[in-house]
Amino acid sequence: MGRDLYMVVQVKEGEEWRLLPPLPSLRHVEFLAPDEEELKENLAFRWSLVRNYALHDVLSLGFETGSSEQDVWPIASPRGLPEGHGFSDRFIDYFLGDLGHSWVTLREAMEYPDWGREVAYWGKEVKPLREWCKDFHDEILVHLRQYADARGISYGAVRLVFGYDG
Predict the structure, then answer these.
(1) In Å, how far are 35, 54, 102, 107 from 2, measured between CA atoms?
(2) Domains: count for the chain
């Protein structure tokens, strides 16, 4: 269950932001119509995210339940697309959804204080938020941290740009 989340990752090199391809297991596979073939090379940069309300809440709007113990606050309030993103309108429309956009740095995602917070979704068991977002927390963030560490890249110079639709 959840909203469709679409994500690309950018790494800052000098003054430019470049797209980082995803792990092969997270590459988004999709067929393109003939009039969309020029987008094909960009498709290799879209990260596939599992439909997940908890991850949507963590990345975008949060979720207020009326019970402060169960509220989920986003890593950062929605920011729109980042300055200097370099995406064409067609890229944004096709790869990042149409209900909203935002971004966070790898540093912000890693330092999110609520990963250990215990919450319940849809009346299911209570477990830490990082467990509700396991693929993102344990695979994507770990991979990006290792990538940055191996290249001496600041965690603030890696940003996750995402969009969503219903």
Answers:
(1) 30, 8, 17, 25
(2) 1
